[in-house]
Amino acid sequence: MRRKLYHGACYYPELWDEETIQQDIDIMREVGVNVVRIGEFAWSVMEPEEGKIDVSFFKEIITRLYDNGIETIMCTPTPTPPIWLSHGRPERMHVNEKREVMGHGSRQHACTNNPYFRKKAAIITTSIAKELGQLRGLIGWQLDNEFKCHVAECMCETCLHLWHDWLRNRYGVIERLNEAWGTNVWSETYQTFEQVPQPGPAPFLHHASLSTMYQLFSMEMIASFADEQAKIIRCYSDAPITHNGSVMFSVDNERMFRNLDFASYDTYASQENASAFLLNCDLWRNLKQGCPFWILETSPSYAASLESSAFPHADGYLQAEAVSSYALGSGGFCYWLWRQQRSGSEISHGSVLSAWGEPTVGYQNVLAVERARKDIEQVILSTVPVQAEAAMTYSDRAKAFIKTEPHRGLQHRTLVTHFYERILNTGIHRDLIPEGVPLDGYRLLFTPFVPYLSSDFIQKASAFAEAGGIWIVGPLTGGRSSEHTIHTDCGLGELEKTAGIKTLFTFPMNEVANTGKAFGITAPLGLWSAVFDTENGNTLGTVESGPAAGHAFLTERKHGKGKIVMLGSLPSGKKGDAMLEALVRHYAAEAAISVRSDVTPGTIVAPRKGDNGLVWVIVNMDGKGGSVTLPEAGTDLLTNRSEKAGRLAVGPHEYRVIQFDNHS
Amino acid sequence: MRRKLYHGACYYPELWDEETIQQDIDIMREVGVNVVRIGEFAWSVMEPEEGKIDVSFFKEIITRLYDNGIETIMCTPTPTPPIWLSHGRPERMHVNEKREVMGHGSRQHACTNNPYFRKKAAIITTSIAKELGQLRGLIGWQLDNEFKCHVAECMCETCLHLWHDWLRNRYGVIERLNEAWGTNVWSETYQTFEQVPQPGPAPFLHHASLSTMYQLFSMEMIASFADEQAKIIRCYSDAPITHNGSVMFSVDNERMFRNLDFASYDTYASQENASAFLLNCDLWRNLKQGCPFWILETSPSYAASLESSAFPHADGYLQAEAVSSYALGSGGFCYWLWRQQRSGSEISHGSVLSAWGEPTVGYQNVLAVERARKDIEQVILSTVPVQAEAAMTYSDRAKAFIKTEPHRGLQHRTLVTHFYERILNTGIHRDLIPEGVPLDGYRLLFTPFVPYLSSDFIQKASAFAEAGGIWIVGPLTGGRSSEHTIHTDCGLGELEKTAGIKTLFTFPMNEVANTGKAFGITAPLGLWSAVFDTENGNTLGTVESGPAAGHAFLTERKHGKGKIVMLGSLPSGKKGDAMLEALVRHYAAEAAISVRSDVTPGTIVAPRKGDNGLVWVIVNMDGKGGSVTLPEAGTDLLTNRSEKAGRLAVGPHEYRVIQFDNHS
Amino acid sequence: MRRKLYHGACYYPELWDEETIQQDIDIMREVGVNVVRIGEFAWSVMEPEEGKIDVSFFKEIITRLYDNGIETIMCTPTPTPPIWLSHGRPERMHVNEKREVMGHGSRQHACTNNPYFRKKAAIITTSIAKELGQLRGLIGWQLDNEFKCHVAECMCETCLHLWHDWLRNRYGVIERLNEAWGTNVWSETYQTFEQVPQPGPAPFLHHASLSTMYQLFSMEMIASFADEQAKIIRCYSDAPITHNGSVMFSVDNERMFRNLDFASYDTYASQENASAFLLNCDLWRNLKQGCPFWILETSPSYAASLESSAFPHADGYLQAEAVSSYALGSGGFCYWLWRQQRSGSEISHGSVLSAWGEPTVGYQNVLAVERARKDIEQVILSTVPVQAEAAMTYSDRAKAFIKTEPHRGLQHRTLVTHFYERILNTGIHRDLIPEGVPLDGYRLLFTPFVPYLSSDFIQKASAFAEAGGIWIVGPLTGGRSSEHTIHTDCGLGELEKTAGIKTLFTFPMNEVANTGKAFGITAPLGLWSAVFDTENGNTLGTVESGPAAGHAFLTERKHGKGKIVMLGSLPSGKKGDAMLEALVRHYAAEAAISVRSDVTPGTIVAPRKGDNGLVWVIVNMDGKGGSVTLPEAGTDLLTNRSEKAGRLAVGPHEYRVIQFDNHS
């Protein structure tokens, strides 16, 4: 798949007549679309009656597209089981947390753990893989579509039994579950696994362990479905397999992608939310390291459904998205969708062509993307992203813990995005890495918002620090056990022992009563916080007001050749942002981070490396233009003109590609 | 019913003892109440045990009231089926969109499509019609009460089967439904009609066609119940039949009133919302043209229930309501309710008398209404409303489309009221007309917020324009097919072809990023918008900023002797209001609209016509006073003094009745 | 229990190992904790398998604690029935108002009226009472925990049958119910008691009588459960019985505590809400008069659950709470909880010790409480609270009426707290008294927000006024009958006849349109209001604007030697507060209230009386310090220094204890 830089669209030829399909292909060629993703909602076209499967339409379309220079990512159609699977079969349907049984309609209405669903899904996927798996135009597979985008944990009877199996497997005997969860609180002790309920309607909150474990169970189940489907495909096809994921859904992406071949995701962030767009690039590049990720869906203009609607991107932003994502590691940039839906629930969603075959409001921007793609294709294909020296831990399992325990409406994604922005704003190149990623090559590691840190992770990070790395832990990290209980040996359990800094107590800080000072800045402190004894380390941040005044909220301690830095609270507001950015800069300097620039906020530098050395792709994201200092002279690869060392300006949504002369 | 101008109240004699009834009648006579509406919640009094029907109480009360000069509108009591119909019978109950089965209590708890309900409703109505149908005091019938005021579409099993029948009737074969709806999106293709679900709980949005068609089905069903009931009454009574409708409920009023005899409605708008009050007058006058409409319910002071409460009208406003509605075509003005309820869910609702028989806070205002009624009765009875030259299309079916597809929380009523206000503010007399009303006599037609325009309607409006009318279409009009899908030939389908102006693309504008200029005014643009190619017409409004800058949002094109004007977007904010009002004035001038005045906003002119020529009833609604220019000299019919041409002032809540001297 | 002033904590030794228990006891001794409450969630520990009961652990722990100087309040464990009671038994579970059947988990998931639950509850309580009832360390019993804190009325089948029994018992024949409720409105007439529904899902509001009576039924049922449990305990133990109640739950505390021995409650008010803390002291002192009440739960720092979190008290506030509550009549001040939960739903809740055995953020404040407790123990034990001369009626049944009929989102607790603050701010010592408390000794009685006033209450208050008292009634008082219907003889029924002031009409006032003047202050008026005829009394407050302008909203009339004052509306905003405080001061002066001071707002004076005469405990609650005039010289009992008459300052959160020299 590294033969080219892909620019594509999601396409539903099964919905249109022959004439329209021909028009589509013609315009795709004009536009420069070189890949389409097809088939993910087409189960009823493939198997209109139960057992009568015919996927020849897709076989022909893939071939025909290929003949027109357009390659295909083929999907399994499991998000939308046909009416014959669901009609009169409430036991096959998804049941939500209020115990409402879903009816047919919309998507994801069936329980993906239902054995009949699994059986029929295996059969349709087998047929597709067998029939299409060897087609030359087929360059990859997508499983299903946005697993768990509309639903979270299912509460059906099938899931109840699987839940008991999962628990039995995890705990062996019920006594171990009772002990691990601390079920003796509120007399919740179970006598058998069969008694453990699903966290459905109850007068008040469920036990934290029950809520979190049910989420982890559900995440494992959906991943096991993906495993099962991928295994089928691999019997018939060598094309790599992916799934269009998201950090927003109830999925453990690290686990989900373990058995898939490349990482992909969908993103519909608006320009105001450009940092969320970049966060995704910096994360998904690391979900399957060494392999380009794909953006399988993004809107050419705006996202919308019958009941919601965003607004079109400003002109130029789409190109900035495409270039920045290619530069940050993307191998494909695809729109949802090629041609506006004629019917259904998303008829108003932004597309490349309208339902009547005319250019939409986003069309010119799509053309601009294609021009840019051609511009940069060679340099992207001949280089790879430079690994960052600074990493930030990302965990979807932490997301589950925070969903169980949001304290005061906390949202994992909001917290993570905000912290990520602090690093982004300093101009330091960064990787967002799942917990399982090795720490080789990093000098600085941030681990905020991970309530439960595994022993494996702590040992890995400890070794990283011992070897000279700086590990900055917190806030909201380490205070919960694997079972979502409180440690009883000390506040932060194994983390605390490893860090060697005593946690005095934890409590909710609020931005009115609590302030703290660090790096010369006084800022409000918020979030569930830990304060530390400073005896065994250096205090870098001290609580100045509120109940814990005088105690430390930010400490550091030598750890082998490196350091462990404990951040117990979240500086908030503008002052808090400044304090966090000062923290990042302070330790970046100490760690001698070199993969960085002084790029102005709103513009990014994506460093890449090839046979000719270092290349910077510089992109203005905010439409206001920006600048960066080139540390040495280089060549503009798009114009072939040389650029002196020093300040380089980039215009609104402009991109520049600079090859440094002397950099290896 | 044209013998007098009715002033009445809703009355529940079945709830009170003999002594209280006598007191009520005595005070009604004092106050001047000459009509009551009775019986709509009295089923259990009429049929306390299943099959034991006795309506003699109502026979006697109607006679007794008549003997006291008070006529009666008798209701069928079907909104509140007795306990013997519902107890232990969940299958007879209404089921809401969450599939909650209603219990007994409140109102509208039974499914009006349930065959047993229909049977018992037919029996009770037969009894009432037979017993009371010939009474001299009986001047009209009201069916049920506020159909669908508390409930929307029912999801019970009965409705499921009727739904399948309705679909079978509409589409014949399932393939036609699949094609019409485009069910191949998301694999929703049905194999049989029996598989088509009701739009109950689902993980995400239902298909647009399913949602909209289920609403249209439900609207037809409730109308068919009304048809059935009316047919029974007509076997035994010649008195005209109505229903107290509302634009707020899930009813297609145009369809509902097709088989009824006169139009009536309930309104509880507060003074701040006086334009909603006037909108109703201008609409319901046209639901059964040529026949006075009735306001069957309005509060003498304030609406309230156990859980909600408005505040009393300012003194004088009730009289302004009464006079303006009589002048705009009302034949009756009735309060809900005469005597405060002693018990139930509406014990705190405003009334004429308190539960203990004393005047309420609204009482003096009721007396003022009666004085005004007497004042104007003669002139109202000897004249009829002048037909407006400007009309605005009103569609409850459009309401269903917008409920399915609210884009960003759009509400049909809010949109329509706001647009209506723009016309109202210009002083142009206006009709709000259902889609089926002929366009004879109009010069200007506005058709905003009708996503689906029928071919019949387009042809009628096209003929209207060809003959010299100006048809101003949009915003949000014409972009959806009859099945709630997107056109595939061009953006606005048949409308676009008829108008001859090409729609370039559609997209959501927002008030921050998009502005447009027309009539010298620059205003924000919002709403789901269409922009136009200007090649074949004149551009009157151009987008000035945002993604479609430079394109037209307002165009006109000659169409026969007239014009079709396309309004693609909604100017918003104060500037937007000014732009829309400029648009109205511009085309009113072009169309040479003469039924208009320069009345100040907050005051209205209701033009009427009789043997002696033109009469203006001028009413100040906002309590601040106002003025209008009399185009020629006239006579004040209330004082018999002459008024010169020129500026005429009206005081707070004052009304004036001017007969013009030379106007035919 | 008057041997000492108790300072304690809720403790869950069943959750911890032996070593931790020993640590807990050691630290309790250090801290000075002299009482613990245990056992309320321990059913599964006591009866891990159905029928296998063993409470020896608790027997041992009570003895062991006692040996360490710590006494125990033992609980019945009925809020958390074990899994063997609920698993596979939906018919035993609580069903909420949406008819959702609760699953196992959380608390209060079983229906407390289920006969099987009742049977098993009786068995476990019998075992506990028998085994532990005679232990020396056991000083009291707590029934269950916070009845109805998570659930309101249950809608299960058991409750349906009990409901019918309750109705049959109340009304005898169905005709009486129909008449009393006025069910003929909306055809809701019932033919048999079996037909009367529970107020579950319905299209619109249920009948007021149905809603209110179902609440009263539910309140009686939970009290009957308490009666049943208390009766069992009394067979085996002489220790007094209480329950930890709250004004926030769906319980009639006056009824609940009728058959219990002393009053207790839980409170988690924050410092900003200190008046709610004081309100509770002034109320619960009077629920079982003559007997110290207990605060069985309050946080040493902050309340929190998985999904919510308050913030820690400012340092010093906990001590102010403890001292003020002891001074206002508390015999015990207990924390929830001693040691942070390791698991469950409340792992983040503030505690004395952390889950790992270290001091928490609240620890120092707990030590401060203990120092204060020792400081004041002698004076508290040798004195009793002085009865106030001013009382305010408190009714949980009124709470039910207002829940049924909130008008515009009214909340009983908010209304009552706000009115109470007006009295508090004047420095008048006050009692909040349930309706059944005799009025002996009072001179001033306020009765706001009691929609239904019983005939007994009216007669008692009338006699109170006749004997010279001043009864200030309203707003929102007396306008509803016992059945939650409207009076039909006059607006306020028996109250109106007793007061001799005619209510003209009632209606909703709003703060924009309505103002009134009294005591020289003009203020907005709000709330559902009554206006009065002034013929038979003095007008003290006149409506100045809005529909009732010119009528009285505040009147007084001589009643025997005293007065009845009718307050028809609620003055609102800052001016309204000032008007209400002027009203309180005016009548306090007229009634010659002497148990009062001029203490500054934010500081309180708790007057107590002993053999040595009058003692004032003065406590600053708001952390800003304050002052009060000592009317005569006294002695500071904490320092033994004399204090001159005149101004006495108290520092932030400081407390002073002054024994007056000459006061008897």
TrEMBL record, chains A, B, C:
Pfam families: Glyco_hydro_42, Glyco_hydro_42C, Glyco_hydro_42M
Annotated positions binding substrate: R107, N145
Residue ranges annotated for the Beta-galactosidase trimerisation domain, each copy included: 388-593
Chain ranges of the Beta-galactosidase C-terminal domain: 602-659
Domain of life of the source: Bacteria
GO biological process: galactose metabolic process
Catalytic activity: Hydrolysis of terminal non-reducing beta-D-galactose residues in beta-D-galactosides
Key words, A-Z: Glycosidase, Hydrolase, Metal-binding, Zinc
The Glycoside hydrolase family 42 N-terminal domain, residue ranges: 10-374
Assigned GO CC terms: beta-galactosidase complex
InterPro entries per record: Beta_galactosidase_C, Beta_galactosidase_Trimer, Class_I_gatase-like, GH, Glyco_hydro_42, Glyco_hydro_42_N
Chain positions recorded as Zn(2+) binding sites: C111, C154, C156, C159
EC number: 3.2.1.23
A GO molecular function held by the record: beta-galactosidase activity
Broad enzyme group: hydrolase
Positions of the catalytic residues: E146 (proton donor), E297 (nucleophile)
Family classification: Belongs to the glycosyl hydrolase 42 family.
Protein name: Beta-galactosidase
